[in-house]
């Protein structure tokens, strides 16, 4: 059973989102998050999980899963658009390692709107605490159509 809050944010519409709209989030990645992500995803690569193994690698220590870093991009999207849009595409380039304890800054910016399909294209950049770009790419989000009468009833319940 899912948690029910009935505290949903207002739904933004495609026309409400302008080119240039930006969202920035800052997050420090913990060992607990890496361990939880590893078990959730099944990616138990010792490069992420074992200090002794990772020390022998070119990275010299454990690295955060690339897709854990990418998941933070999804959080930035949701903060930018609210729940009225869904991920429909992602192109990512992993440009450098992220380590446990790193503080990353995720920046997403609307760079294109495709009115025919109600799709927003966003530029994505993730930097570590040293200012180095560790992830970049483009993402696409599509506006969803909701049954507003049903939503009003559910919110009132």
Automatic annotation (TrEMBL):
GO-annotated cellular components: fatty acid synthase complex
Listed GO biological process terms: fatty acid biosynthetic process
Domain MaoC-like intervals: 27-126
InterPro entries: Fatty_acid_synthase, HotDog_dom_sf, MaoC-like_dom, UPF0336/Enoyl-CoA_hydratase
Gene3D superfamilies tied to this protein: Hotdog Thioesterase (3.10.129.10)
CDD domains: R_hydratase
GO MF annotations, alphabetized: (3R)-hydroxyacyl-[acyl-carrier-protein] dehydratase activity; fatty acid synthase activity
Designated name of the protein: Dehydratase
Organism encoding this protein: Caballeronia grimmiae
